[in-house]
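[recover] target loaded
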């Protein structure tokens, strides 16, 4: 009788352990953070590295490098990385923590603007860049339709064409990170935290929205292309900078 009881007890404990393990596994899957990278709006550099048929080999290698660097940042946050190749919808942004909207080259229709702004209003994190006119004008790329609703606006080209900038330590950056910039666009609104070395003009701002939504807007995209080398500088700290940015946006 005692042996039978011990057997039943052992089975019960095994089942209980299995239930706990299954529940913990399901919980970890549910709680996993998600970063969504936009590659569906004419991006010149960002693509899905696993879906680049017929592309220039040099570009493929560059994209693999950038994706690898972003994946490192994501892994540190226990987050997954995926790519948005079509229009944004409420459904496509469901369960996303951070939308990585870097270097768009075309327009967003009104339904996409609404989906993205609703995503931020409901607590999502948005990383967004808009480079100088050489890469696309504000008439060609309606990026302001998204950020102006939150008091941020991309403006004209910065007349300062010198290279080199930094992120000021504070809410986002843990240290004064050296980051690349050249030919930036002026961005206004929010709190400035990225500056050009030579004149302290702003090219990066952040803002926290009600319900926990957060935005980082950059008037130069070089740091989010992980360009550690530029014009005789080969030690820009893009990985560290982007790690801090994504950490802040993920909260």
């Amino acid at each position: 009788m005692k042996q039978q009881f011990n057997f039943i007890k052992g089975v019960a404990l095994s089942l209980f352990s299995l239930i706990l393990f299954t529940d913990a596994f399901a919980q970890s899957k549910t709680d996993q953070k998600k970063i969504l990278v936009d590659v569906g709006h004419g991006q010149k550099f960002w693509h899905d590295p696993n879906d680049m048929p017929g592309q220039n080999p040099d570009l493929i290698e560059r994209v693999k490098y950038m994706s690898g660097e972003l994946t490192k940042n994501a892994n540190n946050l226990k987050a997954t990385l995926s790519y948005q190749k079509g229009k944004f919808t409420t459904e496509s942004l469901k369960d996303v923590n951070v939308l990585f909207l870097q270097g768009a080259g075309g327009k967003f229709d009104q339904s996409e603007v609404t989906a993205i702004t609703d995503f931020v209003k409901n607590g999502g994190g948005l990383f967004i860049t808009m480079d100088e006119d050489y890469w696309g004008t504000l008439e060609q790329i309606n990026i302001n339709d998204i950020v102006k609703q939150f008091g941020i606006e991309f403006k004209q080209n910065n007349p300062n064409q010198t290279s080199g900038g930094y992120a000021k330590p504070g809410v986002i950056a843990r240290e004064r990170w050296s980051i690349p910039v050249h030919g930036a666009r002026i961005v206004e609104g929010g709190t400035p935290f990225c500056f050009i070395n030579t004149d302290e003009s702003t090219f990066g701002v952040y803002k926290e929205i009600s319900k926990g939504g957060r935005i980082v807007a950059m008037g130069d995209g070089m740091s989010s292309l992980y360009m550690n080398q530029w014009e005789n500088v080969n030690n820009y700290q893009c990985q560290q900078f982007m790690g801090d940015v994504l950490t802040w946006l993920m909260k």
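[recover] notes: Confidence is low (pLDDT under 50) at residues 7-29.
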